[in-house]
Amino acid sequence: MTITAQMVKELRERTGAGMMDSKKALVENGGDFEAAIDWLRTKGIAKAEKKASRVASEGMVFTLTEGNKGVVVEVNSETDFVAKNDQFQAFVKQLAAMILESGETDVEALKSANWPEGGTVSEKLTDLVATIGENISIRRAQTVSVPNGVVSGYMHMGGKIGVLTAIEAPEASDTMAEVARNISMHVAASNPQFLDRSSIDADVLARETAVYEEQARQGGKPDNIVEKIVMGRVNKFCEEICLVDQAFVMDTDRKVGQVVTDANADAKLSTYVRFVLGEGIEKEEGDFAAEVAAAVAS
To answer: What SS3 class is residue 264?
Structure first.
C-alpha cells in the first residue's frame, strides 16, 4: 500500500508523533491507521511526543573536560526531581562525551547522530521521555579548546550552573588545571560579562561613558576634572564586568588575570563559558487546581 503525505499528516495530528515516526508506523502496519496508532503507543512514541509541548526549564548543566578541550551541555526536564534520575544523568553524561569527541554542538545535528548503544540520539531521547514520563530536551552545547594549555570545568549546585575556563600556557600542568578550575568557580559566583576590556561591546562602553560624563558635568566641574572622573568610573565599570580585571573571589588582593600569570608568566586566560540552567526559558505559570480537575475528569 502506498503511504501518502496526507496519511502521515493525519496520524501526526492524532498521536502527536513526529513525521518520520508516523510514516514508519504506517509502513510497518501496511497503512492500517488504527494499528499504526497502537504501534506508536506500544513504542511509547505517541506518549513521548505529546509531552514535547510542555515547558522544560529544569534539568542539568554538565561539564566534561579532557586536557586542552572541554564541553558544557544543558539538557532540560520539566521538574528538578527528574534531574536527579540516574537514567537522565547517564544520558547527559554520555551526550557530553559524544560532543567532546566529535565537536558537534548543533542540537539538530546531535539528534541525528548515532547513539553508542544503537539507534540515534533522538530515538534514545524519545525512549527516555517515554520511560521517565516527562518532556526532556537537549537545549544547547558549547565546546572550548586551546592549542596548548588546559581547560577545566566546574558545576555549581549539582548542575544549576556550569562553567568552562580555558587557559593558554606553554604546558598543561596540574597546577594550571587547578587554577583554571578555581577561576571557573569564580565565574560561577561573579558572572563576568566579558573576558577583558578589548572584548567589551563598543556600544556598551559608549553608553556607560556618556552616562558618567553627564553625571560629572551636572556638578559644574571643569573639563579636566570631568575627564578624570569619567576615566575613573569607566575603569571601575570595566573591573566589575571583565573577568581578568575582577578581584579573585579566593584572594581579593589579586585580580583574576594576575592569578593566571602568577602561576605561569607566559600563560593567559583564553576564554570562558557560563551556562545557567533554564536561563531565558519562559516558564509557564500553571493553575494547579485546574490541572487536578482536568486529571480527574480524564
So the answer is: coil
Coil, strand or helix at 44: coil
d(Cα 264, Cα 282) in Å, to the nearest integer?
A: 43
Rounded CA gap, 213 and 204, in Å?
14
* 3-state DSSP of 82-130: HHCCHHHHHHHHHHHHHHHHHCCCCHHHHHHCECCCCCEHHHHHHHHHH
Helix (H, G, I), strand (E, B) or coil at 65: strand
Identify the DSSP state of 56. -
- Per the CB < 8 A criterion, the answer to whether 67 and 151 are in contact is yes
Q: By mean pLDDT, which of 157-166, 244-253, 278-287 is the weakest?
A: 278-287
Q: What is the spatial distance between Cα 95 and Cα 141, in angstroms, rounded to a whole number?
A: 10
Does the domain at 5-51 match CATH 1.10.8.10? Answer given as yes
Give CATH 1.10.8.10 domain extents, the chain: 5-51
* Crossing angle of helices 33-43 and 19-28, rounded to 10°: 120
What are the distances in angstroms from CA 189 to CA 97, 214, 245?
26, 32, 15
Strands (E), the chain: 58-66, 69-77, 136-145, 149-156, 161-168, 247-248, 251-255, 268-276
> What superfamily does domain 54-144 belong to in CATH?
Elongation factor Ts, dimerisation domain (3.30.479.20)
What per-residue confidence (pLDDT) applies to 176? 97
Q: Does residue 226 contact residue 216 with C-beta atoms inside 8 Å?
A: yes
Three-class SS of residue 29?
A: coil
Average pLDDT on 24-37 reads: 88
> Under a CB-based contact definition with an 8 Å cutoff, are residues 31 and 7 in contact?
yes
Residue pLDDT, tens place only, 249-274: 999 999 999 999 999 999 999 999 99
